[in-house]
Specification:
The complex is a heterodimer of chains A (250) and B (391).
Chain A: E1 4-17, E2 20-33, E3 37-41, H1 48-55, E4 63-68, E5 71-72, H2 78-88, E6 89-92, H3 104-109, H4 119-132, H5 148-160, E7 166-170, H6 178-193, E8 198-202, H7 206-211, E9 214-219, E10 222-228, H8 234-246
Parallel strand pairs in A: 3-8, 3-9, 6-7, 7-8
Antiparallel strand pairs in A: 1-2, 1-4, 4-5, 9-10
Helix pairs in contact in A: 4-5, 5-6
Chain B: H1 5-14, H2 16-48, E1 55-60, E2 71-72, H3 76-80, E3 95-106, E4 112-120, H4 124-127, E5 132-136, E6 145-149, H5 150-155, E7 164-167, E8 170-179, E9 188-192, H6 193-199, E10 204-205, E11 207-211, H7 215-226, E12 233-237, H8 238-245, H9 249-281, H10 283-292, H11 296-329, E13 333-337, E14 344-348, H12 353-379, H13 383-388
Parallel strand pairs in B: 4-9, 6-8
Antiparallel strand pairs in B: 1-11, 1-12, 2-10, 3-4, 3-11, 5-8, 6-9, 7-8, 13-14
The chains are: A alpha/beta (250), B alpha+beta (391).
Chain lengths: 250, 391
C-alpha cells in the first residue's frame, strides 16, 4: 500500500441557515492514499462537496483535523490557506469558471502568476499543460470561441499547470454532453495513471465513478460505503453504481 | 504577483456602454473643472506677471488701488528726495507721476465696461520694460492723443489706430497701439499726465511709480516714505500691489474648486455604481481567483486598479474636452471686471500642464472614491457561497 496523502479526522462541519443549524459533516473520518482516484458520491446535501472543499482548503471545519501530506491545513489562517492552495491544489469546477476576457493561454497561466516562475518558464508550463489536454492549437482562443468540452479541458490544464499535489473536481462532467464528458473522463484517468496524480471527484455520473479506483458514498454527512472498484466485477459495479444513482435526486 | 492588468482593462471594454457612460460622466466633470481653473489661472496670470519687484508704487495711505489714491503736486518733489531711488543717466530720479481715470467705453460686441485711462510721464515706459509700441507712434503731450493697448483696441469701439475715442465732452485721437506682454497695462489706454489732469480738472496725481536700485534701497525707500509724517503716503512693491489685485481671481478659483468637488462626488457615485455592477457580475470569477490562491489584497488591488483605469480614461477625455473648449469656444482674450478697481481686465483662459495634471488627479480621486467600496466587497467575497451561485 502507498502512503496516506490525506487524513481527515473527526471532521464536523456545520452551516447556519438563519437560526437553524445544519450539521453537514458529522465526525467524519476518511483517508486517501497517494495515487488514488476517488469518486465521492451521494445524494444532494450528503456533504460530498463540503468534504471536497474542506480537503481543498477552500472551507474550514468547525472541529477535527485535516492533514494533506505534512500540512495540517485545518490549522492554517485564511491567507496561509490561499497560499497553500496555490501550491498544492488543482481545482476543476462544474461550470469551468474560465475568465471570459482572457485567452486559453492566459487562463492557464493565471495560477503560475502566483509562483516565482519567469515569463518564458510560464510559457513552457502553459504549453505543456495545454498539449496534455490536447488544446495546444487553441491557445489564443477566448472561452466563447471554445466548446463546453474544450472549455473544461482548458480548466483542467489550468488545474494541472502548477503540478499540484492533488486534483479536485466538483461534478466535472455535469455540464457536458456524453462525448465531451467521455473525453474529460479519459483525460482524468490518464492524469491518474500516467502522471500519478491523486484525484478526488464529486459526481453523480456512474460513468465517471467507473473510472475511479475507489467509490465513497456519503449520506447525511456520514460515510456509508467505501469500495475499491477493482474488487468489483462489471456486474457488481453496475449494481453498486446504480445504488448511488438511485440516490440522485430527480 | 498580482492579477494581470489586462484582466481589468479588457473587462472595461467588455462593458462598453456602462464604461463609456461612466467615462463620459467623469470626463465632463474634469472638463468643467479645467475650464473654470483655466479662467482663474488666466486672470491670476495677468496680475502675477505685472509689476517689477524693484518698482515701488506710491499711494495715499490705506488706498487699496490707484483709483482711490491721491498725491498732490507739491508732495512729488518731497518723494523724489527720499533715498533709494535709481537715477537716470542724466541724473534725474527714475520716477513717474501718474493719473488714473476710469472711462466707460462701449464694447464692439455690445455693452460697455470701465477701461483704465492712465496719464503717464515720459519716464513711464522706462519703468515698464514689457511696454512696446507696435503700431503708430507715441502720443504728443498736450494734443489730446492717446495710445491704446492692442487687446483694448480689439475689444472696444473707436479704439483702433486713427479712430477718435469719445467720452463725455472729451475726445482723444488714437495715434499708437502698444503691447505690454500680458501685464496690467494691456488693459489700459495711455495719454500724457498733464493733459489728462487738465481735461479731468484733477488737481492731484493718483500715484507715483518709482524705480529703486536694489532690494535694500527699495526697503530703504519704503521705510523712509512711511517714516515721513509730512507725506501720509505709503509705498507698495509694484509686484505686491498687483498680487493683491489677484483677489479678483481668488473667488473664481474657490468657485472652481467648490463645483469641482461637488461634481466629482457625483461622478464618484457613478463610478461606484459601475464598479458594484462589475463586482456582482464577476462574483464567481472572483471566487475562482481566490480558489487558485490569489489573496484578498490581490483582489482588492485589482478592482481598485480597474476603477482607476476607468477614471483615468475619463480624466483623459476631460483633458481633451477641456483643451477643445478652451482652444475653440473660449479662445482669444476675454474680459472681466477687477473688483478692486471696477475696471476691465483683459485676460486669456490658460490651460497649463499643471492644471491638466490637476484634472487627471481629480479623475483618479473620483476613481478611488468610486472603487474602494466595491473592491472591498470583492475582496471579502465568500468563496463557497459565490461558487454555488447559479449564473
Amino acid at each position: 500500500m502507498t502512503n496516506p496523502l490525506i487524513i481527515v479526522e473527526n471532521i464536523v462541519k456545520k452551516y447556519h441557515r438563519g437560526a437553524e443549524e445544519l450539521t453537514v459533516l458529522n465526525s467524519l473520518n476518511f483517508t486517501v492514499y497517494e495515487g488514488e482516484f476517488v469518486a465521492l458520491m451521494g445524494p444532494s446535501g450528503s456533504g460530498k462537496t463540503t468534504l471536497l472543499n474542506l480537503i481543498a482548503g477552500i472551507d474550514r471545519p468547525n472541529s477535527g483535523y485535516i492533514f494533506v501530506g505534512k500540512d495540517e491545513i485545518s490549522a492554517l489562517s485564511e491567507d496561509k490557506l490561499a497560499e497553500w492552495r496555490s501550491r498544492h491544489i488543482g481545482f476543476i469546477f462544474q461550470t469551468y469558471n474560465l475568465i471570459p476576457v482572457l485567452t486559453a493561454f492566459e487562463n492557464v497561466e493565471l495560477p503560475l502568476l502566483l509562483t516565482p516562475l519567469g515569463k518564458s518558464e510560464r510559457r513552457k508550463h502553459v504549453e505543456i499543460a495545454l498539449s496534455i489536454v490536447g488544446l495546444a492549437d487553441r491557445m489564443s482562443h477566448y472561452p466563447r470561441q471554445l466548446s463546453g468540452g474544450q472549455e473544461q479541458r482548458v480548466a483542467i490544464a489550468r488545474a494541472i499547470v502548477t503540478d499540484p499535489t492533488l486534483l479536485m473536481a466538483d461534478e466535472p462532467t455535469g455540464d457536458l454532453d456524453a462525448k465531451s464528458a467521455e473525453e474529460v473522463l479519459i483525460l482524468l484517468e490518464r492524469l491518474n495513471s500516467e502522471f500519478k496524480k491523486t484525484i478526488i471527484i464529486v459526481t453523480h455520473d456512474p460513468k465517471a465513478a467507473a473510472r475511479a479506483s475507489r467509490l465513497v458514498r456519503l449520506e447525511k454527512g456520514i460515510l456509508k460505503e467505501d469500495i475499491p472498484t477493482e474488487s468489483l466485477d462489471s456486474a457488481r459495479f453496475a449494481e453498486a453504481a446504480s445504488v448511488f444513482v438511485e440516490a440522485r435526486p430527480k | 504577483m498580482a492579477i494581470p492588468l489586462k484582466y481589468n482593462v479588457r473587462n472595461l471594454f467588455v462593458r462598453k456602454i456602462t464604461t463609456g457612460l461612466t467615462v463620459l460622466g467623469i470626463g465632463l466633470v474634469v472638463a468643467v473643472f479645467l475650464s473654470v481653473m483655466s479662467l482663474s489661472e488666466g486672470l491670476a496670470r495677468v496680475f502675477k506677471a505685472s509689476g517689477s519687484t524693484r518698482n515701488v508704487l506710491v499711494l495715499r495711505q490705506n488706498s487699496q488701488s490707484e483709483v482711490q489714491s491721491g498725491i498732490s503736486r507739491n508732495q512729488v518733489p518731497l518723494i523724489l528726495t527720499l533715498p533709494g531711488i535709481e537715477k537716470n543717466i542724466d541724473g534725474n530720479p527714475l520716477a513717474s507721476s501718474e493719473l488714473v481715470v476710469m472711462l466707460n467705453l462701449k464694447k464692439i460686441d455690445g455693452g460697455a465696461s470701465n477701461v483704465t485711462l492712465r496719464g503717464i510721464s515720459e519716464k513711464s515706459p522706462l519703468l515698464r520694460p514689457q511696454f512696446k509700441l507696435i503700431e503708430g507712434r507715441m502720443f504728443s503731450p498736450g494734443l489730446s492723443e492717446v495710445i491704446v493697448s492692442r487687446s483694448i483696441s480689439e475689444r472696444f469701439k473707436n479704439c483702433r489706430l486713427g479712430d477718435t475715442i469719445h467720452f463725455g465732452v472729451y475726445k482723444w485721437k488714437v495715434v499708437g497701439i502698444f503691447d505690454a506682454g500680458g501685464t496690467a497695462p494691456d488693459s489700459e489706454i495711455w495719454t500724457d499726465v498733464e493733459g489728462a489732469m487738465n481735461s479731468f480738472k484733477r488737481p492731484s496725481y493718483s500715484s507715483v511709480l518709482v524705480r529703486t536700485t536694489d532690494k535694500a534701497s527699495r526697503d530703504q525707500f519704503i521705510a523712509a516714505l512711511a517714516g515721513d509724517p509730512r507725506l501720509a503716503l505709503e509705498g507698495k512693491v509694484e509686484r505686491v500691489y498687483y498680487d493683491e489685485q489677484t483677489s479678483t481671481a481668488a473667488p473664481i478659483k474657490f468657485f472652481g474648486i467648490f463645483i469641482g468637488v461637488i461634481m466629482a462626488i457625483g461622478a464618484g457615485f457613478g463610478a461606484m455604481n459601475t464598479m458594484y455592477a462589475a463586482v456582482s457580475t464577476r462574483t464567481k470569477e472572483i471566487a475562482m481567483l481566490r480558489v487558485l490562491g490569489f489573496s484578498r489584497l490581490a483582489i482588492l488591488t485589482s478592482f481598485i486598479v480597474e476603477a482607476l483605469c476607468l477614471a483615468l480614461l475619463g480624466g483623459l477625455l476631460g483633458c481633451l474636452l477641456g483643451i477643445l473648449t478652451v482652444e475653440l469656444a473660449l479662445s482669444g482674450v476675454t474680459g472681466t471686471t477687477n473688483f478692486t478697481t471696477f475696471s476691465e481686465v483683459v485676460f486669456a483662459f490658460r490651460l497649463t500642464p499643471k492644471i491638466l495634471l490637476t484634472g487627471i488627479i481629480l479623475s483618479l480621486f473620483i476613481g478611488l472614491f468610486g472603487g474602494i467600496l466595491p473592491a472591498t466587497q470583492a475582496a471579502f467575497t465568500k468563496i463557497i457561497l459565490a461558487l454555488r451561485q447559479i449564473e
